[in-house]
């Protein structure tokens, strides 16, 4: 399962920039990686785990801007084709995660 967060946040004022930076920092601390400038993704082992991270993003939404959150399966993610300067690139591989019970 993959969770993707897409956003368009204002950075016109110092407060806007601070809110943008705080949101991006939160995503990175929660294990999301940058896929594109305003798209972050995170691999999750289950739907329950994905819901936890989606809820965490919702709790930290910035006061202004647009944010989209969705999840896709590993199979759907694997069907994506990524190109950089017309050269096909490999998709990011899920990281190994250790779960403690």
Automatic annotation (TrEMBL):
Obligatory cofactor(s): Mg(2+)
Subunit structure: Homodimer, forms a heterotetramer with a Cas1 homodimer.
UniProt xrefs under InterPro entries: CRISPR_associated_Cas2, Virulence_VapD/CRISPR_Cas2
Domain of life from the UniProt record: Bacteria
The protein's Enzyme Commission number: 3.1.-.-
Family from the record: Belongs to the CRISPR-associated endoribonuclease Cas2 protein family.
NCBIfam families: cas2
UniProt keywords, alphabetically: Antiviral defense, Endonuclease, Hydrolase, Magnesium, Metal-binding, Nuclease
Catalytic EC class: hydrolase
Binding locations of Mg(2+): 8
Name of the protein this chain belongs to: CRISPR-associated endoribonuclease Cas2
Membrane-crossing segments per the record: none
Matching Pfam families: CRISPR_Cas2
Role according to the record: CRISPR (clustered regularly interspaced short palindromic repeat), is an adaptive immune system that provides protection against mobile genetic elements (viruses, transposable elements and conjugative plasmids). CRISPR clusters contain sequences complementary to antecedent mobile elements and target invading nucleic acids. CRISPR clusters are transcribed and processed into CRISPR RNA (crRNA). Functions as a ssRNA-specific endoribonuclease. Involved in the integration of spacer DNA into the CRISPR cassette.
């Amino acid at each position: 399962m993959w969770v993707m967060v897409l956003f368009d946040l204002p950075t016109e004022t110092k407060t806007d920039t601070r809110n943008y930076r705080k949101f991006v920092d939160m995503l990175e601390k929660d294990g999301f990686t940058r896929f594109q400038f305003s798209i972050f993704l995170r691999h999750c082992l289950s739907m329950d785990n994905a819901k936890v991270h989606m809820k965490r993003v919702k709790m930290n939404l910035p006061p202004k801007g647009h944010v989209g959150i969705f999840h896709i399966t590993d199979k759907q993610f694997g069907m994506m084709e990524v190109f950089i300067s017309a050269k096909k690139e490999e998709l990011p591989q899920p990281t190994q995660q250790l779960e403690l019970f």
